[in-house]
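Risk register update: the risk of archive-format incompatibility is retired. Evidence:
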Amino acid sequence: MTFRQDHLLGIESLAPDEIAVILDLADSYAALNRGPEKHAAALAGLTQINMFFETSTRTQASFEIAGLRLGADVMSMSMHASSIKKGETLIDTALTLNAMHPDLLVVRHPQSGAVDLLAQKVTCAVLNAGDGRHEHPTQALLDALTIRRAKGRLHRLTVAICGDISHSRVARSNIWLLGKMESRIRLVGPPTLIPTGAADWGVEVFHDMAQGLEGADVVMMLRLQNERMDGGFIPSTREYYHRYGLDAEKLARAKPDAIVMHPGPMNRGVEIDGTIADDINRSVIQEQVEMGVAVRMAAMDLLARNLRARRAA
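Archived output:
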C-alpha cells in the first residue's frame, strides 16, 4: 500500500490511489469492528491527543474509539476549559503539547487553516477533524466508503449534495473527493446558501430540488449550520423544508435505488423527513456513523506507519 502523507489535513492533497488505500484498509477495519474481538495493535505504544475547539459528539467519539481499538493511549482535551481561555495562543498550546511527545494529534477548530498551522509546529502526525468552513477530510472519506459499499463503486456516479453548501466543510471535502473519482456532482440549495463562483468548481448548481435530484444515485443532505450564519439566509425553517427538505415526493425524482446520506446531526423536519431518514432501504445514515470509526482507524494506522518510518530513518 502506498500512502505518502505525513498528515491528513484535507482531501485536496490526496491522490486517487491514496484515497483507495485508505478506503481498502478501512474496509478491513469495518469487518474487524463487526466481529467479536474489535482490537488491533497498529497504534500500540503510541499516544493520541484529541483537541476539539468546537463541540462534537460523533467525530470526537469516533476518533476516541478508533484510537482505543488500535491500542493507542488516548487523551481528549476540553479546549473550552484550557489555557486558550487564559490567553495562551494556539501556537503556544501546540508547542506545549509537542513537548509531551504525542504521536497523533486530532484537531477540530472553528478557524479555517488553523489545523494546517498547527501541523507546521509539531513533530507528530496531525489529523484535521474539521477546520472552519475549509475541510473535513475523514467525513468525506467515510462518506466515500459508505457510497462504495452501497454502490460497488465511486466512479461516475451522480451525487446531489443538498442544503447549506456555503457553510459546509463537509460539502467542500466531498466535492474534492468525488471530483477526483470522476463522479458528477450537483449542488442543490437556495441562492443564499450556494457559494459565489460554485459553478466554477466543476459542479452543476441547481436551485430547484426536483431538477437537482433527477436521476441521482446518491442524495447527500446537509445540516443548516445556524451557528455559522450571521444574517437571514432563509425566510423560515418551515419554508426551507417545503422547498429543500428531503421528503418522499422529492426523493422520487432520484433513481429508485438512490441512497440517502446525512453527516449529522440531523434536524428532522427541516433538512429531511424522519421517515426517509429511518428508511432502511434507502438511508445509509447509520452506516455512515459506523464507517466513521473504520475510516479513522485506517487513517491513523497509515499515518502511524509513516511516522515510525520517518523516526527510524
